[in-house]
Design a protein that fits this description.
- The structure is a homodimer of 467-residue chains.
- Chain A has 467 residues and is α+β, with helices and mostly antiparallel strands.
- Chain A is globular.
- Chains A and B meet through helix 3, strand 4, helix 5, helix 6 and strand 7 of A and helix 3, strand 4, helix 5, helix 6 and strand 7 of B.
- Chains A, B: It comes from Leucobacter weissii.
- Chains A, B: Keywords: Heme, Iron, Lyase, Metal-binding, Oxidoreductase, Peroxidase, Signal.
- Chains A, B: It is an enzyme of class 1 (oxidoreductase).
Chain lengths: 467, 467
């Protein structure tokens, strides 16, 4: 990549008052696209933003110009004092797997899906993924999206970074990028990016289920980004800035905010409660269970294709919960529906939260302690060919309807190494799980999460190098 | 208040399996409406929930029954390990002023407005406010809404508390309750609650302004509740449970989630950045400025009426920000629009963030350093008869439109001792503030926040005792 660096005007308060002029001459800009080593610490992608990415940041006004990534942006101070605690927590962007899967689940989510603009080709897609990877490698370390960032681009350019996460990032931010099935082949069978031959055989959509009322406008997409952080401002900043970098190349299709994790992905975390007041995700796969991750989550060589090994599939379902109906249900019935004690999360067959349910246990009258149609019975691995998944969902509350009912529920996210394995469990639940009565799924998506990024690489590189 | 206590059935796993039956006999329930002293610690309202409030919790299924507030609910453990840090932080509900105004602004908001059901009268309204005050006095201390709470009502009743805040409350929760103008007199002049004579002369609505595109369904209401906490689950739990207690009496009209404070209300807090990346609320009134609070925020005896003294007015405006347009604006122009340096928040006339702007300062060419139409110039007290306000707003992001643009902005909240004082500043801004180009107000409300609650009292008691 070569960049014609823009001169940097000197700057003083007032000098820019009222100016809408073109970039002024400057001197001394660093011609190398790489920022200084200090600024790029933690960045696996040393190449900087593409010319296209730079133009997107500039908007339509300064065609033909571009910005070098050199500048004086320093590592953002992570005091957190104007944000959520834990601002200084950071996770590497590079690794064998993408971050944001086994990473201890953060408290906040901004999820977004994008469609590639018509007329763009394979090279455009690669460049977008390179730009996103570069920016993601920076913001996950608490840096601005580029070296010039929010404040160091001079008065005559729109800032590269929108600036609202300054001083509160990275707050444990992870950015996880995925591919929709349409990226390989549209519904009409079009192969826009020369990827049809690489479509994994296991990359299937989910069948329609009972209580599926799917809004297509809130489902699927060519690309997805899951941004998780312990400060919602940092997650929103990530989606906003990555959307901006994609300007003219990919358009935001739908987005969802979530708050409060509804699973634990590490043994170091307590089990949280969902909006039905239940402990949720007790039987989740944890980061500390490598064998289960290999068996259930990571795409292995036997599943393939090779380029996707160490990747996974992300299932996202927006599940509206009939809050007011549930809240009027007797405690005993709530527990029968879930099969667990509401207070401590223990199976109704006895023991503690993490004890295995005994689906054969009966009371004195011979009745099963755990109803056959309870949620725990329907989804438990022992009743589903041993299939498990790594759940990583969030609560959502999107206002209320005109009857005063909250539009709230679970933005369900799970990672599995084949969507049909999720469907086995899901079908078993959807046919007559007692819980289904209180749920209504309003959006449903499957994305392939490619394997992790090597130092200097970009998300999806294995795919494009495969052919 | 007297309660016919419901018998409490004994309970074992499985016994309730499939049961939808009526309450079973029990023995030993405490006939006193007050919970034990330990359970009621921090509660200014010793009376418990009204019969009506209890029925609301029960839903329609068990007419005529009621629940005593005695029980075994203990103070919720505030470990916070499955929620946000700071779970143990609590603020008293009782006091001269309501909490949630000068309280150091928390990180999360759930705001809701309600309309009283048709046909209800003054006593119903009083009872609702008593029930809300009782529940609020408990949940702000990390307790469930009643002593039986989420788990101690037995298997045959819906739980009093929805349970999702268990273990993560109170997280600094404040519950602030307000009155809409319609509570005193409807648009048609109807005096539903015998309060028309008590309508404060200063309780006026805001005039329509430039760039007001007001959705009435998202504005106003008979009552409002502002729930703020450092964990969004705790704020949502508060609104959800107070909505539930109001069932059949008041219906949720509109609601708004907010994340990330956009002001500081204490000198102990850093200035946060808003979604335009600017430091926001630099000139805010702080809790540590009692003289300014008396002058600008608290309703004084000279303003009256007597029952409202120590109350205030809450202005709530949902201000959509044209994020994508702003992000394409040159840094220098962004700073001209706001009149402040984007990085450090200092006025463009020089100095640091907290230095007073010098609106007469000029550069070498004689041009003003701070544009006359900049936001800081338009809203500064020195240009508005010295009027200040206490701002306490939040960011919001409610998905995106079909063009992929974020539906995001500022849920502006300010407290002033007369709405017309807010209007003076607002008019000065709305006429030609450069900032207005990037804003669109989609909802607008004014609520009177009555003074604080005495021990054993309820919100609004001063009003109903006044006549």
């Amino acid at each position: 990549m070569s960049e014609d660096d823009l001169p940097e005007p000197s700057r003083s308060p007032g000098e820019d008052s009222g100016s809408q002029g073109a970039p002024a001459p400057e001197a001394g800009a660093d011609p190398a696209p790489e920022a200084g080593a200090q600024e790029n610490a933690g960045s696996p992608v040393g190449r900087g933003l593409s010319r296209r990415g730079m133009l997107a940041l500039l908007g339509g006004g300064v065609a033909g110009a571009s910005i070098g990534v050199a500048g004086t942006a320093a590592v953002v101070a992570a005091t957190g004092s104007s944000g959520e605690p834990g601002a200084g927590l950071s996770y590497p962007f590079a690794g064998a797997h993408q971050a944001g899967i086994v990473t201890p689940e953060q408290e906040h989510l901004h999820f977004a899906a994008f469609d590639i603009r018509e007329g763009l080709g394979r090279d455009d897609l690669i460049e977008l993924l390179q730009d996103w990877s570069y920016a993601a490698s920076r913001i996950t370390q608490g840096l601005d999206v580029s070296a010039r960032g929010a404040f160091d681009g001079g008065p005559y350019l729109p800032p590269d970074d929108t600036g609202e996460a300054t001083g509160i990032a990275p707050a444990g931010l992870t950015v996880t990028i995925g591919f929709g099935r349409s990226l390989f082949s549209t519904d009409a069978g079009e192969d826009r990016f020369g990827l049809a031959a690489q479509l994994p055989e296991h990359f299937t959509e989910l069948p329609k289920m009972i209580n599926d009322f799917i809004d297509r406008g809130r489902s699927a997409g060519d690309l997805c980004i899951q941004a998780c952080a312990n400060d919602p401002k940092v997650a929103v900043h990530a989606i906003r800035n990555l959307t901006r970098i994609a300007f003219g190349r990919a358009q935001l299709r739908w987005s969802q905010l979530g708050y409060g994790r509804t699973s634990s992905t590490s043994t170091s975390q307590d089990t949280p409660r969902n909006l039905f007041g239940q402990k949720d995700g007790t039987a989740n796969i944890r980061a500390e269970e490598p064998d289960r991750l290999e068996e259930h989550v990571w795409i292995g060589e036997s599943q393939g294709p090779d380029w996707a090994v160490n990747g996974t599939y992300l299932i996202a379902r927006r599940i509206s919960m009939t809050i007011e109906v549930w809240d009027g249900v007797q405690l005993g019935e709530q527990e029968r529906v879930t099969g667990r004690d509401k207070r401590d999360g223990a199976p109704l067959s006895g023991g503690g939260e993490f004890d295995e349910p005994d689906f054969a246990a009966t009371d004195a009258s011979g009745a099963l302690l755990i109803d056959e149609r309870s949620h725990v019975a329907r989804v438990h691995p022992s009743n589903n060919d041993g299939i498990r998944m790594l759940r990583r969902g969030y609560n959502f509350t999107d206002g209320n309807d005109d009857q005063g009912r909250l539009d709230a529920g679970l933005f369900f996210i799970a990672f599995v190494n084949a969507p049909e394995r999720f469907s086995v469990v899901h079908k078993n639940m959807a046919r007559d799980d007692l819980f289904i009565e209180y749920l209504k799924t309003t959006a449903s998506s499957v994305f392939l999460i490619p394997p992790g990024v090597s130092e200097g690489g970009y998300v999806g590189q294995q795919l494009f190098e495969a052919g």
